[in-house]
Amino acid sequence: DGIMLRNLLKVRKSGWKQRAFSSNSPVPKQARAVVIGGGIIGNSVAYHLAKMGMKDVVLLEQQQVTAGTTWHAAGLMVTFGSMNETSTDMRKYTRKLYSELEAETGQATGFKPVGFIELAADADRLEEYRRISAINRKHGVDVHEISPQEVQKLFPLCRVDDIQAGFYVKEDGRVNPVDVTMALAKGARMQGVKILENVGVADITEKVFNGHRRVTGVVTTAGEVIEAEYVINCAGMWARQLGEKNRVVIPNQAAEHYYIVTDAMPNVDPNWPVVEDPSSYTYIRPEGSGLMVGLFEP
Ligand SMILES: Cc1cc2nc3c(=O)[nH]c(=O)nc-3n(C[C@H](O)[C@H](O)[C@H](O)COP(=O)(O)OP(=O)(O)OC[C@H]3O[C@@H](n4cnc5c(N)ncnc54)[C@H](O)[C@@H]3O)c2cc1C
């Protein structure tokens, strides 16, 4: 629908405008590490390598930074729901990072801690989320079970006569994925990372050292060679095919997922929380003066 697409483009255009800072310079002949892919993962890897003190990091993006899946993301940022400590810690770290990146880089991330509610629509999910909540609380996520009436108070458009409870994390919420990525890219560049757009990687080169295969660098689609000690494949849904060229199995499987953005709706408050209802494979959050409704395949 044209109207929905226009709304979406309105939301995303801030990110497109900011592309200009990621300028192109000549492809270097050597780097300590080459990061392949300029989505949120590639930029985060480059940012963190530089933060850990690695010099001479180059990121190569075949199109433009954020041009892949990252551009489409709904921006939900949630610490609730993981069943293990490591990924819960990563979620908490991410939330903290996103709340601080703007101060560090001067680039807004759109981080809005509007809260997140996971709905339990039946007894099984209620039991499951109570268990997950116990694990999450143990690892520092401040999640609370709330009644259907409390859910409706927080998100008045929510029909609650068929739900058992909500699981609410006040500090979670949403970001603008393009802006977060641009902030990570800016933070990376501020620490010396070279980000090159319109430079695709055709091949990862390797040699055998002491009986073990090791990467030696990359060859770009234009035929330039970059020697590197480390190559990090952050090519998103293209990562598997790229890995296969070197007989490296990357078990990534692209999954179809989509959302709609409505026109402006009366009474929608942009500060309402994100609501997720796994029983209907749906998440809903305010977007501008309307709603974003994300849908998964059953
Ligand atoms: C509709 C939708 C909604 C979503 N909502 C959310 C959400 O709310 N919250 C959430 O956490 N996640 C969400 N996701 C998932 C999220 O978008 C992805 O997990 C994330 O963006 C993946 O980032 P990435 O950097 O791995 O991949 P990408 O953003 O796809 O980046 C990979 C990059 O690699 C580049 N590339 C590929 N091959 C090469 C090559 N050979 N040489 C150079 N560059 C190359 C591509 O051009 C691309 O820019 C959503 C996804 C979709 C589709």
UniProtKB/TrEMBL annotation:
Q: Which GO terms describe its cellular component?
A: mitochondrion
Which sequence ranges form a coiled-coil region, renumbered to this chain? Answer: none
What domain of life is recorded for the organism? Answer: Eukaryota
Give all residue intervals belonging to the FAD dependent oxidoreductase domain: 33-294
SUPFAM superfamilies per UniProt: FAD-linked reductases, C-terminal domain (SSF54373), FAD/NAD(P)-binding domain (SSF51905)
Q: Which InterPro entries match?
A: FAD-dep_OxRdtase, FAD/NAD-bd_sf
The record's annotation in PANTHER family points to:
PYRUVATE DEHYDROGENASE PHOSPHATASE REGULATORY SUBUNIT, MITOCHONDRIAL (PTHR13847:SF193), SARCOSINE DEHYDROGENASE-RELATED (PTHR13847)
Record-given protein name: FAD dependent oxidoreductase domain-containing protein
